[in-house]
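Quick question, first post here. What does this chain look like in 3D?
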Amino acid sequence: MKSSYYDESVNLGLQFQKENKSWSGADTLKYQKQIKGLVDRFQATTILDYGCGKGMQYSTPCIDGKTFDEWLGVTVYKYDPCVPEFSIPPPANMKFDGVICSQVLHTIPDDDMHWVCEQITSYSTKFVFIGINFKKPAKRKKHIYDKRYFKQPRTREYFKSFFKNSKNIFWWWKDRMFYSEWIDDQISNKWLDVPEIWDPTYHFVETTI
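> Answer (accepted):
Ran it through. Tokens below.
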């Protein structure tokens, strides 16, 4: 059930994306290896991009002269409540092989995390991929929402708590180095949330919005 602040937060996001080049959808490409690995592993042909931004990744060639969906070899349903042309969610009974959700959960108010996470998992039949950046947020982004509705520290443990009863949830914290065995490690519980090797571009930062 939506909180009293949810629609306002969506309207703030709508205004922000209209006035800025941000939320183009390019962030999804930063997880291209991870998503491609899951698509191949689970032989996925349909994907829901939950929080696709402006959808640039699906309209402009970006990898080997192909759009992201062409490169993945999948059909993508694009959904983002803050982008008018993609603001209609899939029907509740619609299913996809996989759901990808990158750079989204940190924008969800505390009281809406439960139903949003349940909605994300409800669409998937094979896997859910969640990418989150723990680098400090951009100056303007972190001020567009009312902090009274973002009181919970946005830690790895906080995000994962909403999926503890869900299967085939795959995480990627953007401050870690990519390695090819990551899917097997998450399935076998060998995955370390706090990496032993850091991506030098990023730092371990967990903050409220």
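The longest strand covers residues 124-132.
The helical segments are 6-19, 32-42, 56-59, 68-72, 113-122, 156-161, 182-187.
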